[in-house]
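Hello,

Our lab assistant flagged a job as stuck in the queue for most of the afternoon. It eventually completed. Since we weren't sure the result was trustworthy after the delay, we are filing this so someone can double-check. Below is the sequence as submitted and the structure that was eventually returned. Let us know if re-running is recommended.
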Amino acid sequence: MKKITSIILLAVTVLFASCGKERKEISSDEKPIAVKVSGLDSSNGSGYISASGKVEAENSANVSTRMMGYVTKLHVKVGQRVSAGQLLVSINNTDLVAKKAQVDASVMQATAAFKNAKKDYERFTALFNQQSASQKELDDMTSRYEMAKAGLEAAKQMRNEVLAQFSYSNIKAPFSGEITNTFIKEGDIANPGMPLVSIEGASRLQVTAMVSETDIANIHNGMDVKVMVKSINKEVSGKVSEVSLSSKNTGGQYLVKINLGNVDKSILSGMFVNVQFPVENKITEEKPTEKVLVPTSAIVKQGQLTGIYTIGNDNRAILRWLRLGKTFGNEIEVLSGLSANERYIVSAEGKLYNGAKVSIQ
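-- returned structure --
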């Protein structure tokens, strides 16, 4: 019996030893999660005002038509570059062709009536000068001539109207650019005012940014700014072209437009950016605190709590709970829980958790 008990104790000891060894190996082989870390953007009077914005084309249009008809041909596709005047969409114009034939016939009829009335008018004018026709006869011929002249002009204007309708059956590019969207396909019915194709000018880009009421007074037309394109990590220069003086239609913030001019082709319309407006160095005794902004994509939500992952000792992810304030574009203000210039995790290539080993890229 003693021997059996000793064997059991030995087996249990070996089992626990192997389990402990396995746990140790898993812990030592823990692979760090690759993360991107960013410092905070703050506007504290230290030389610049930071605002979020988005790249867009200076020239953009949703091309539509003024007539109803079946789409017979879509000549372009999304991503295609087009030149000004290039044919984009063809709409069935059979009814217009028939109407044009009717108008042409009306013009011919009105022309014949006008020529006949003109000859009679000239003849009766000559007879009246020779005192061979009465004033009443000349007045009647003059009236007939004027009516025929007006009828011919009306027929010609009607033909111009029909010819103008043909331009709405063959939709052309208003400027050179790139097709960004198509809203119809062949066989669909095009309706007046309905967008058919969206086009953006590819030559010049601009940035639209939203600036808070506390900072808008420091921004003016012609100001040189720095624009950071977040997705490709590239910085370009720009110049303020428009500053809105009202926030009525923009949710309490002020719209500012920045011209980028000729930029790298890697910068595309729709990319999010961070704009830095240079300001004069002023004494900011009335503003002892900083405005701390972080991307909304970096915020972690668990129930009613919101937080952000920071970098702790030994490159460990530490979840920090925050108290948040107003949202500015794709960034949100941190009221408490995170200090200025403190590093935090923007994105990760794996699932983060509190205490996870991370590798800063």
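-- support follow-up --
The delay was a queue issue, not a problem with the job. The result is valid. The CA atoms of residues 224 and 239 lie 5 Å apart. The mean pLDDT is 80.
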